[in-house]
Design brief:
Number of strands: 5
Shape: globular
Order of helices and strands: HHHHHEEHEEE
Strand content: 5-15%
Structural class: alpha+beta
Distance between the termini: 40 Å
Length: about 180
Amino acid sequence: MTNKLIGLRLPLEDIKKLEVIAHQNNQSVNSVAKNAIIEWLEIFSRTRQQGMIILGKLLVSNLLELIDVDKLKQFAELTADRKVDFFHFIIGKHPSVNTLDEFIKDAPKILGNKGLMWFDHIEITKEKNSVHFKGVHSLGEKWPQFLLFFFNHIMQQYFNMKLNEENLKHSDNSLYLEYNF
């Protein structure tokens, strides 16, 4: 990819914020600024292309608390199908057992703190006959239930895997799911 040098004029207080972030992350100010612009462009283009809006976590958490379980499941499954469409767009292949490894690699980027920010931290790993989702979030009590419906739909519909209910663990801020072939 060809690069081009550009210059930016920023208020001094914004430069100081960049310097603090750079210091905290052991990066250069240039690297932090470059990554911020790239991240903003990705978020901006994704939200515009898919007709999305950005809602704060507290608002989402409060909205979820108002939804009964059946509606929450419908909402999670509809959302799962939309994310599968987005995944298909990213990798250029329809999700299936053959694309499971790519899903495992890309899903944390899409759903984690560099993407949709559904998780503060997320890990997805694959073992011989199982896939494990481990995540920490800050979206309240109903969020793990939403995620359970969301991942169940994706893993069953697209990857032909079933939830191991014996290993299901979740709390108000964490989730562990295991799916088996």
